[in-house]
Amino acid sequence: MNYAFAPAPAVTVPTAETAGAVGASRHFPVRRVYCVGRNYEAHAREMGHDPDREPPFFFSKPADALVYVAPGATGEFPYPSLTSNVHFEMELVVAIGKGGKDIPVERALEHVYGYALGLDMTRRDLQAEAKKLGRPWETAKGFDHSAPLGPIHPVAKIGHIEHGAIWLKVNGVEKQRSDVSQLIWSTPETIAYLSKLFELQPGDLIFTGTPEGVGAVVKGDLMTGGVDGLGEFSVRVV
């Protein structure tokens, strides 16, 4: 096939079995990145919204916004342009390994390949302005490097994560802490609902939402986050 120019390389994320191995070849190819908004009650309240169990809503990030953070390494998050208020949002990320549409809740976990640590970095000032004007959030959520991500831990290795602590520290000071069991819409429910809106495919990632305690970071800050069963990762703002 003749291209007008060389196509961009596929976006892939190493799995936990190979994340630190020399010459590792087992990578998870990323197709789409979906994100669930306001999926912890306390975070909904801190953002000024009623935490009642209304239907979930979603936004997306481009796959090339992912920034892989290797185990034992410190990733880098370049402070973005046209903002003075960039927030961290620590999240459990679900990796889809089996596609489907209108997936029943009771079968949803069969579609999960694995889980990962993720940060949904947000230009909060741009988001607030977009909300006020009734405009899309892309510039606030889908900018370059806005989705630091750790290796994907296969279900076959760790099982499903339905409860366990989720936390984030900035420069050693804890800012976020909750439990995955406190998700308003659980992982199976989120997959089932999302599959009514889009036909899910292998390679899709779902950022499941962030707990309360979101806040701003500045250049030089070190963010360290984790989820029970997935360990920790660290990302520095540069």
Features:
about 35% strand; five-stranded mixed β-sheet; single chain; six-stranded mixed β-sheet; alpha+beta; about 240 residues; globular; about 15% helix
Binned, the helix content reads 10-25%
Please describe the biggest sheet, giving its number of strands, its sense, and whether it closes into a barrel: 6 strands, mixed
What characteristic shape results from the CA principal axes? globular
Q: Secondary-structure element order, as H and E?
A: EEEHEEEEEEEHHEEHEEHEEEE
Explain this structure.
The relative contact order is 0.25. The protein is α+β, with helices and mostly antiparallel strands and 238 residues long. Strands 4-3-15-8-9-12 form a six-stranded mixed sheet. A five-stranded mixed sheet has the order 6-18-17-13-14, with no helix packed on it. A three-stranded antiparallel sheet has the order 10-7-16. The radius of gyration is 17 Å and the shape is globular. A hairpin with a 2-residue loop joins strand 13 and strand 14 (173-179). The model has no long low-confidence stretch (mean pLDDT 93). The chain has five helices and 18 strands.
Topology overview:
Elements: E1 12-14, E2 27-29, E3 33-36, H1 41-46, E4 58-61, E5 66-68, E6 74-77, E7 86-88, E8 90-96, E9 112-119, E10 122-123, H2 124-133, H3 138-141, E11 147-149, E12 153-154, H4 155-158, E13 165-170, E14 173-179, H5 187-197, E15 205-207, E16 215-217, E17 222-227, E18 231-237
Parallel strand pairs: 3-15, 5-11, 6-18
Antiparallel strand pairs: 1-2, 3-4, 7-10, 7-16, 8-9, 8-15, 9-12, 13-14, 13-17, 17-18
Short description:
The protein is an alpha+beta fold. It has helices at residues 41-46, 124-133, 138-141, 155-158, 187-197, and strands at residues 12-14, 27-29, 33-36, 58-61, 66-68, 74-77, 86-88, 90-96, 112-119, 122-123, 147-149, 153-154, 165-170, 173-179, 205-207, 215-217, 222-227, 231-237.
